[in-house]
Amino acid sequence: MSAVVEAKVGRRARGKRTDPSARKHVGDPDAEAAVGAPIDYDEVASLGACLVVGDGDYAFALAAARSAGGSAGWLTATAYDAAPVDAAAAARCAALAARGARVRHGVDATAIFDDGVRYASVLFNFPYAVRAERRPQIHDNRALLVDFFKSAEAVLAKSGRVYVALARGQGGTRFEETARTRFDAYGNSWKVVEAASASGLVLERAGPPRFPPGYAGGGYGITAENPAGGAIGDAYANGAIAHVFARAAEASASICAIDHAHDLSFWLPSPDGHDDAGFAATAAAVAGRFGAALKGAALADAYACTKTGRTARTYRVVVATGARAVSRAASAAVCAALCAAASETHGYESRSYGKVT
To answer: Model-level pTM greater than 0.85?
Structure first.
């Protein structure tokens, strides 16, 4: 089941972003059947160069290195803090260096350094936006994911993968336990698939994370001196979902892709001057130029103005990921180009008084 993000484009030209599928998650047969295979994090050692970001106490990186055995020259472990957060973290850094891993401090996951290495995998476990002045809100974490994916994609090898583990309910895919129990689970999530699509990445796999032995997911601010600070909590970590993303052209599959629906309204050149089939063909051609897939361009409404005698038609255009991942902004660009093409090819006059969103 695809999540659908809708936008009305008419006189008000204001976007409405909802997920109709999420409103009926309870008892939804598709949601009930969505059980992803576990994601084994030991696999990253065999892929090549691996970059771990946001590993505050370096516990994950050391567990991964130990599990893989041998030299850890394939691994680069980083954390946001400018220095190890405590003595235990410092000891892990020393152990990683002794195994041949690179260790770096002060690395922002939203502005990853570019040292020329193109990583076969980039990993971010349990990201969480931190605001010094207030408690972070859901839009802060959505923005964090958008910025992280943009930064990770820039240092990713051609066939590389991005791994993101999120606590229960945060991702917003059908693989979540909350997809079957929480009203509007998608709308109340961090929308990880949509965040990744802005950088041309699609979700290839998702399922419970199988972390290396010796690592248990924690939260921001957990240290030996402050073991309770920032903890995610067992209830959330136990329901965590690992997400594996790839560039659309390299992915073996694209799951949980988001369909972007836009209602486009046009004045017709004459009362009978409509060509619905021709418009659909034009829409498909425009979407193809953008590397997007067209899931529909059907008539949604017809209108006749009693004062002027002019007639109008509104089409619901649904744009989805095709050869390239399609974000909300990319789908809007497709529709803007479609409006121009419809004017040139069919003589349609757009009734949208604002930017397509």
So the answer is: no
